[in-house]
Specification:
2 copies of one chain form a homodimer. By secondary structure, chain A is mostly helical. In chain A, α5 crosses α8 (about 130-145) and α5 runs antiparallel to α9 (about 155-160). In chain A, about 70% of the residues lie in helices and about 0% in strands. Chain A has helices spanning about 10-20, 30-35, 40-50, 50-75, 80-90, 95-100, 105-130, 130-145, 155-160. At the A-B interface, α6, α8 and α9 of A face α6, α8 and α9 of B. Chain B binds a DNA duplex through α3.
Chain lengths: ~170, ~170
DNA sequence: ACTTTTGGGGAACGATCGTTCTTGACTGAT
DNA sequence: ATCAGTCAAGAACGATCGTTCCCCAAAAGT
Protein backbone atom coordinates (compact mmCIF):
# COMPACT_ATOMS: atom_id res chain seq x y z
CA UNK A 1 0.00 0.00 0.00
CA UNK A 2 0.98 3.59 -0.34
CA UNK A 3 2.55 5.62 -3.07
CA UNK A 4 5.62 4.34 -4.90
CA UNK A 5 8.97 6.08 -4.60
CA UNK A 6 9.97 8.39 -7.38
CA UNK A 7 13.68 7.89 -6.71
CA UNK A 8 16.01 4.92 -6.81
CA UNK A 9 17.65 4.46 -3.43
CA UNK A 10 20.70 2.87 -5.00
CA UNK A 11 21.25 5.76 -7.36
CA UNK A 12 20.80 8.24 -4.54
CA UNK A 13 23.41 6.55 -2.38
CA UNK A 14 25.86 6.28 -5.25
CA UNK A 15 25.42 9.96 -6.03
CA UNK A 16 25.92 10.76 -2.35
CA UNK A 17 29.20 8.85 -2.47
CA UNK A 18 30.27 11.13 -5.29
CA UNK A 19 29.29 14.30 -3.48
CA UNK A 20 30.80 13.37 -0.11
CA UNK A 21 33.89 12.09 -1.86
CA UNK A 22 34.39 15.39 -3.61
CA UNK A 23 34.38 17.83 -0.73
CA UNK A 24 34.34 17.94 3.03
CA UNK A 25 31.33 16.72 4.98
CA UNK A 26 30.44 20.21 6.15
CA UNK A 27 30.98 21.46 2.62
CA UNK A 28 28.04 19.38 1.38
CA UNK A 29 24.76 20.91 2.50
CA UNK A 30 21.42 19.18 2.63
CA UNK A 31 20.35 21.55 -0.14
CA UNK A 32 23.23 20.26 -2.25
CA UNK A 33 22.16 16.71 -1.58
CA UNK A 34 18.51 17.36 -2.38
CA UNK A 35 19.42 19.22 -5.56
CA UNK A 36 21.92 16.71 -6.93
CA UNK A 37 20.43 13.43 -5.75
CA UNK A 38 16.98 14.04 -7.13
CA UNK A 39 14.96 13.21 -4.06
CA UNK A 40 12.92 15.41 -1.79
CA UNK A 41 14.05 16.61 1.62
CA UNK A 42 11.32 14.60 3.26
CA UNK A 43 12.35 11.44 1.47
CA UNK A 44 15.94 11.97 2.55
CA UNK A 45 14.99 12.21 6.20
CA UNK A 46 12.38 9.46 5.95
CA UNK A 47 14.84 7.10 4.32
CA UNK A 48 18.13 7.93 6.00
CA UNK A 49 17.14 9.71 9.20
CA UNK A 50 19.61 12.54 8.93
CA UNK A 51 22.43 13.96 6.87
CA UNK A 52 24.86 11.94 8.96
CA UNK A 53 22.74 8.85 8.41
CA UNK A 54 22.98 9.26 4.66
CA UNK A 55 26.70 9.89 5.01
CA UNK A 56 27.21 6.65 6.91
CA UNK A 57 25.20 4.69 4.37
CA UNK A 58 27.21 6.29 1.57
CA UNK A 59 30.47 5.52 3.34
CA UNK A 60 29.53 1.87 3.83
CA UNK A 61 28.42 1.68 0.25
CA UNK A 62 31.69 3.19 -0.86
CA UNK A 63 33.61 0.60 1.10
CA UNK A 64 31.44 -2.24 -0.19
CA UNK A 65 31.44 -1.11 -3.81
CA UNK A 66 34.91 0.34 -4.22
CA UNK A 67 37.09 -1.17 -1.51
CA UNK A 68 35.96 -4.78 -1.50
CA UNK A 69 36.50 -5.19 -5.26
CA UNK A 70 39.93 -3.67 -4.77
CA UNK A 71 40.72 -6.23 -2.09
CA UNK A 72 39.65 -8.99 -4.46
CA UNK A 73 41.85 -7.66 -7.23
CA UNK A 74 44.70 -7.46 -4.73
CA UNK A 75 44.34 -11.15 -4.00
CA UNK A 76 45.71 -11.83 -7.46
CA UNK A 77 48.69 -9.52 -7.06
CA UNK A 78 52.12 -11.09 -6.80
CA UNK A 79 54.40 -8.09 -6.38
CA UNK A 80 54.45 -4.75 -4.59
CA UNK A 81 54.37 -2.78 -7.83
CA UNK A 82 50.96 -4.17 -8.66
CA UNK A 83 49.73 -3.48 -5.14
CA UNK A 84 50.86 0.12 -5.22
CA UNK A 85 49.39 0.66 -8.66
CA UNK A 86 46.04 -0.88 -7.78
CA UNK A 87 45.58 0.91 -4.46
CA UNK A 88 46.88 4.31 -5.46
CA UNK A 89 44.77 4.42 -8.62
CA UNK A 90 41.56 3.18 -7.02
CA UNK A 91 38.65 5.53 -6.51
CA UNK A 92 39.00 6.08 -2.77
CA UNK A 93 38.13 9.75 -2.44
CA UNK A 94 35.46 9.28 0.19
CA UNK A 95 37.62 6.92 2.23
CA UNK A 96 40.49 9.38 2.21
CA UNK A 97 38.30 12.27 3.30
CA UNK A 98 36.68 10.09 5.93
CA UNK A 99 40.03 9.12 7.42
CA UNK A 100 41.43 12.63 7.56
CA UNK A 101 38.39 14.70 8.28
CA UNK A 102 35.49 12.72 9.73
CA UNK A 103 37.14 9.92 11.69
CA UNK A 104 38.61 12.30 14.30
CA UNK A 105 35.15 13.75 14.94
CA UNK A 106 32.92 10.69 14.53
CA UNK A 107 33.93 7.46 16.19
CA UNK A 108 31.49 5.41 14.14
CA UNK A 109 33.25 6.65 11.02
CA UNK A 110 36.58 5.95 12.69
CA UNK A 111 35.61 2.35 13.42
CA UNK A 112 34.40 1.87 9.87
CA UNK A 113 37.53 3.16 8.16
CA UNK A 114 39.87 1.44 10.60
CA UNK A 115 38.27 -1.89 9.83
CA UNK A 116 38.33 -1.14 6.11
CA UNK A 117 42.01 -0.31 6.11
CA UNK A 118 42.79 -3.36 8.21
CA UNK A 119 41.03 -5.61 5.72
CA UNK A 120 43.02 -3.97 2.95
CA UNK A 121 46.21 -4.68 4.86
CA UNK A 122 45.18 -8.28 5.33
CA UNK A 123 44.41 -8.74 1.65
CA UNK A 124 47.85 -7.43 0.76
CA UNK A 125 49.58 -9.49 3.41
CA UNK A 126 47.84 -12.64 2.18
CA UNK A 127 48.51 -11.95 -1.48
CA UNK A 128 52.21 -11.24 -1.09
CA UNK A 129 52.86 -13.48 1.88
CA UNK A 130 54.29 -10.65 3.95
CA UNK A 131 53.75 -9.37 7.47
CA UNK A 132 50.74 -7.22 8.23
CA UNK A 133 53.09 -4.46 9.36
CA UNK A 134 54.71 -4.32 5.97
CA UNK A 135 51.32 -4.60 4.29
CA UNK A 136 50.05 -1.68 6.38
CA UNK A 137 53.05 0.33 5.28
CA UNK A 138 52.30 -0.47 1.65
CA UNK A 139 48.70 0.62 2.12
CA UNK A 140 49.87 3.81 3.77
CA UNK A 141 52.34 4.51 0.99
CA UNK A 142 49.68 3.96 -1.65
CA UNK A 143 47.26 6.27 0.16
CA UNK A 144 49.99 8.88 0.42
CA UNK A 145 50.59 8.66 -3.31
CA UNK A 146 46.88 8.91 -3.96
CA UNK A 147 46.73 11.92 -1.65
CA UNK A 148 49.38 13.68 -3.69
CA UNK A 149 47.56 12.96 -6.92
CA UNK A 150 49.99 10.23 -8.01
CA UNK A 151 52.91 12.45 -9.07
CA UNK A 152 54.44 11.13 -12.27
CA UNK A 153 56.90 8.34 -11.76
CA UNK A 154 56.73 8.36 -7.99
CA UNK A 155 55.05 4.99 -7.66
CA UNK A 156 57.34 3.46 -10.24
CA UNK A 157 60.41 4.92 -8.59
CA UNK A 158 59.35 3.58 -5.22
CA UNK A 159 58.72 0.03 -6.38
CA UNK A 160 62.05 -0.03 -8.20
CA UNK A 161 63.73 0.41 -4.87
CA UNK A 162 61.65 -2.09 -2.96
CA UNK A 163 62.78 -5.67 -2.35
CA UNK A 164 60.82 -8.42 -4.05
CA UNK A 165 59.37 -8.61 -0.51
CA UNK A 166 58.17 -12.19 -0.83
CA UNK B 1 49.20 56.17 18.29
CA UNK B 2 46.14 54.51 19.65
CA UNK B 3 45.46 51.81 22.13
CA UNK B 4 47.82 48.86 22.52
CA UNK B 5 46.69 45.35 21.69
CA UNK B 6 45.73 43.09 24.54
CA UNK B 7 46.64 39.97 22.55
CA UNK B 8 49.85 38.64 21.09
CA UNK B 9 49.42 38.12 17.37
CA UNK B 10 52.02 35.36 17.36
CA UNK B 11 50.26 33.43 20.07
CA UNK B 12 46.94 33.86 18.32
CA UNK B 13 48.27 32.50 15.05
CA UNK B 14 49.96 29.58 16.77
CA UNK B 15 46.74 28.74 18.57
CA UNK B 16 44.87 28.99 15.28
CA UNK B 17 47.32 26.47 13.81
CA UNK B 18 46.36 24.12 16.60
CA UNK B 19 42.63 24.57 16.08
CA UNK B 20 42.67 24.31 12.29
CA UNK B 21 45.05 21.37 12.53
CA UNK B 22 42.67 19.51 14.81
CA UNK B 23 39.47 19.56 12.81
CA UNK B 24 38.10 20.53 9.43
CA UNK B 25 38.00 24.16 8.35
CA UNK B 26 34.22 24.28 8.47
CA UNK B 27 34.34 22.53 11.82
CA UNK B 28 36.09 25.49 13.38
CA UNK B 29 33.65 28.36 13.85
CA UNK B 30 34.55 31.99 14.42
CA UNK B 31 33.06 31.57 17.88
CA UNK B 32 35.53 28.75 18.50
CA UNK B 33 38.38 30.93 17.35
CA UNK B 34 37.33 33.90 19.46
CA UNK B 35 36.86 31.70 22.51
CA UNK B 36 40.13 29.79 22.27
CA UNK B 37 42.44 32.40 20.84
CA UNK B 38 41.69 35.05 23.42
CA UNK B 39 41.03 37.94 21.10
CA UNK B 40 37.85 39.78 20.28
CA UNK B 41 35.83 39.26 17.12
CA UNK B 42 36.58 42.79 16.05
CA UNK B 43 40.28 42.27 16.50
CA UNK B 44 40.16 39.09 14.47
CA UNK B 45 38.53 40.84 11.54
CA UNK B 46 40.64 43.98 11.94
CA UNK B 47 43.85 41.95 11.97
CA UNK B 48 43.17 39.11 9.57
CA UNK B 49 40.28 40.37 7.46
CA UNK B 50 38.23 37.19 7.62
CA UNK B 51 38.18 33.64 8.90
CA UNK B 52 39.82 32.54 5.67
CA UNK B 53 42.44 35.24 6.07
CA UNK B 54 43.35 33.92 9.50
CA UNK B 55 43.39 30.41 8.11
CA UNK B 56 45.83 31.37 5.39
CA UNK B 57 48.10 33.13 7.87
CA UNK B 58 47.93 30.09 10.15
CA UNK B 59 48.70 27.76 7.26
CA UNK B 60 51.73 29.81 6.20
CA UNK B 61 52.89 29.96 9.78
CA UNK B 62 52.49 26.23 10.09
CA UNK B 63 54.62 25.71 7.00
CA UNK B 64 57.22 28.20 8.18
CA UNK B 65 57.39 26.92 11.75
CA UNK B 66 56.86 23.22 11.34
CA UNK B 67 57.78 22.34 7.78
CA UNK B 68 60.91 24.42 7.23
CA UNK B 69 62.64 23.06 10.38
CA UNK B 70 61.74 19.60 9.18
CA UNK B 71 63.37 20.30 5.82
CA UNK B 72 66.48 21.47 7.64
CA UNK B 73 66.61 18.35 9.76
CA UNK B 74 66.18 16.31 6.61
CA UNK B 75 69.28 17.88 5.13
CA UNK B 76 71.32 15.94 7.65
CA UNK B 77 69.63 12.62 6.87
CA UNK B 78 71.66 9.96 5.10
CA UNK B 79 69.19 7.12 4.75
CA UNK B 80 65.53 6.56 3.94
CA UNK B 81 64.79 5.24 7.42
CA UNK B 82 65.65 8.59 8.94
CA UNK B 83 63.63 10.42 6.33
CA UNK B 84 60.55 8.32 6.94
CA UNK B 85 60.90 8.63 10.68
CA UNK B 86 61.37 12.40 10.59
CA UNK B 87 58.53 13.16 8.19
CA UNK B 88 55.98 10.72 9.55
CA UNK B 89 56.50 11.84 13.13
CA UNK B 90 56.48 15.57 12.42
CA UNK B 91 53.56 17.71 13.51
CA UNK B 92 51.89 18.18 10.14
CA UNK B 93 48.23 18.01 11.06
CA UNK B 94 47.27 21.26 9.43
CA UNK B 95 49.19 20.48 6.26
CA UNK B 96 47.50 17.12 5.94
CA UNK B 97 44.05 18.59 6.42
CA UNK B 98 44.86 21.39 4.01
CA UNK B 99 45.92 18.95 1.29
CA UNK B 100 42.92 16.68 1.59
CA UNK B 101 40.16 19.08 2.48
CA UNK B 102 40.94 22.70 1.62
CA UNK B 103 43.19 22.48 -1.41
CA UNK B 104 40.44 21.12 -3.66
CA UNK B 105 38.20 24.05 -2.73
CA UNK B 106 40.73 26.89 -2.39
CA UNK B 107 43.36 27.33 -5.04
CA UNK B 108 45.46 29.63 -2.89
CA UNK B 109 45.69 26.84 -0.34
CA UNK B 110 46.42 24.40 -3.15
CA UNK B 111 49.32 26.52 -4.39
CA UNK B 112 50.70 26.86 -0.88
CA UNK B 113 50.69 23.18 -0.05
CA UNK B 114 51.93 22.13 -3.48
CA UNK B 115 54.95 24.36 -3.08
CA UNK B 116 55.50 23.14 0.47
CA UNK B 117 55.45 19.50 -0.53
CA UNK B 118 57.73 20.20 -3.47
CA UNK B 119 60.28 21.84 -1.19
CA UNK B 120 60.07 18.81 1.08
CA UNK B 121 60.70 16.55 -1.90
CA UNK B 122 63.68 18.66 -2.91
CA UNK B 123 65.18 18.56 0.57
CA UNK B 124 64.94 14.79 0.59
CA UNK B 125 66.32 14.46 -2.92
CA UNK B 126 69.29 16.67 -2.02
CA UNK B 127 69.98 14.91 1.25
CA UNK B 128 69.92 11.39 -0.13
CA UNK B 129 71.14 12.20 -3.61
CA UNK B 130 68.12 10.61 -5.26
CA UNK B 131 65.68 11.64 -7.96
CA UNK B 132 62.84 14.00 -7.11
CA UNK B 133 60.39 11.32 -8.22
CA UNK B 134 61.69 8.91 -5.63
CA UNK B 135 61.83 11.68 -3.04
CA UNK B 136 58.22 12.54 -3.80
CA UNK B 137 57.31 8.92 -3.28
CA UNK B 138 59.10 8.91 0.07
CA UNK B 139 57.23 12.04 1.13
CA UNK B 140 53.97 10.47 0.04
CA UNK B 141 54.74 7.28 1.92
CA UNK B 142 55.59 9.22 5.07
CA UNK B 143 52.39 11.25 4.82
CA UNK B 144 50.43 8.05 4.34
CA UNK B 145 51.99 6.60 7.47
CA UNK B 146 51.26 9.79 9.36
CA UNK B 147 47.68 9.63 8.09
CA UNK B 148 47.25 6.16 9.51
CA UNK B 149 48.63 7.20 12.85
CA UNK B 150 51.99 5.49 12.36
CA UNK B 151 50.89 1.89 12.92
CA UNK B 152 53.47 0.06 14.98
CA UNK B 153 56.34 -1.31 13.00
CA UNK B 154 55.02 -0.20 9.63
CA UNK B 155 57.70 2.42 9.03
CA UNK B 156 60.42 0.07 10.20
CA UNK B 157 59.12 -2.76 8.06
CA UNK B 158 59.02 -0.53 5.03
CA UNK B 159 62.55 0.78 5.38
CA UNK B 160 63.88 -2.74 5.90
CA UNK B 161 62.70 -3.58 2.44
CA UNK B 162 63.96 -0.45 0.75
CA UNK B 163 67.26 -0.28 -1.07
CA UNK B 164 69.96 1.88 0.45
CA UNK B 165 68.69 4.15 -2.36
CA UNK B 166 71.82 6.23 -2.59
C1' DA C 1 44.17 69.27 28.13
C1' DC C 2 42.50 68.02 23.80
C1' DT C 3 42.34 65.65 19.68
C1' DT C 4 43.07 61.62 17.09
C1' DT C 5 43.66 56.94 16.39
C1' DT C 6 43.15 52.27 17.50
C1' DG C 7 41.34 48.25 20.17
C1' DG C 8 37.81 45.82 23.00
C1' DG C 9 32.81 44.88 24.35
C1' DG C 10 28.64 43.28 22.87
C1' DA C 11 24.61 43.35 20.24
C1' DA C 12 22.89 42.53 15.78
C1' DC C 13 22.95 41.64 10.82
C1' DG C 14 21.30 38.66 6.80
C1' DA C 15 22.34 34.13 5.15
C1' DT C 16 22.51 29.48 5.55
C1' DC C 17 22.62 25.39 8.38
C1' DG C 18 20.06 20.74 9.50
C1' DT C 19 15.58 19.52 10.56
C1' DT C 20 10.46 19.38 10.91
C1' DC C 21 5.59 20.58 9.87
C1' DT C 22 1.54 20.95 7.00
C1' DT C 23 -0.79 19.83 3.08
C1' DG C 24 -2.19 17.32 -0.84
C1' DA C 25 -1.40 13.70 -4.37
C1' DC C 26 -0.96 9.03 -5.30
C1' DT C 27 -1.66 3.89 -4.78
C1' DG C 28 -2.76 -0.71 -2.88
C1' DA C 29 -6.10 -3.05 -0.04
C1' DT C 30 -11.00 -3.45 1.58
C1' DA D 1 -15.91 3.80 -3.69
C1' DT D 2 -13.60 4.24 0.43
C1' DC D 3 -9.96 3.92 3.44
C1' DA D 4 -5.28 3.59 5.02
C1' DG D 5 -0.70 4.40 4.30
C1' DT D 6 3.27 6.29 1.81
C1' DC D 7 5.41 9.86 -0.64
C1' DA D 8 6.16 14.53 -2.65
C1' DA D 9 5.92 19.64 -2.52
C1' DG D 10 7.25 23.52 -0.16
C1' DA D 11 7.05 26.59 3.62
C1' DA D 12 8.94 27.29 8.00
C1' DC D 13 11.47 26.18 12.25
C1' DG D 14 15.21 27.55 15.66
C1' DA D 15 20.10 27.46 15.64
C1' DT D 16 24.30 28.74 14.02
C1' DC D 17 27.16 30.58 10.40
C1' DG D 18 30.57 34.54 9.03
C1' DT D 19 30.47 39.31 9.27
C1' DT D 20 29.45 44.23 10.62
C1' DC D 21 27.83 47.96 13.42
C1' DC D 22 27.87 51.25 17.32
C1' DC D 23 29.84 52.80 21.41
C1' DC D 24 33.27 53.58 24.76
C1' DA D 25 38.10 52.89 26.70
C1' DA D 26 42.86 53.50 26.18
C1' DA D 27 46.99 55.56 24.63
C1' DA D 28 50.00 58.56 21.33
C1' DG D 29 50.67 63.29 19.13
C1' DT D 30 50.04 68.23 19.46
Amino acid sequence: MGRRRAFDEDEVVRAAVGLFGGRAYDGVSVDDLVTHLGLHRNSLYKTFGSKRGLYLVALRRHLADDLRPLAEKLAAATDSATVLRLVSSADLGLLLLAVVERAPADEEVAAEVTAALASLDQAIADALGISTELAAALTAAALGLRLRGNPDGAAVALTQHLDPLN
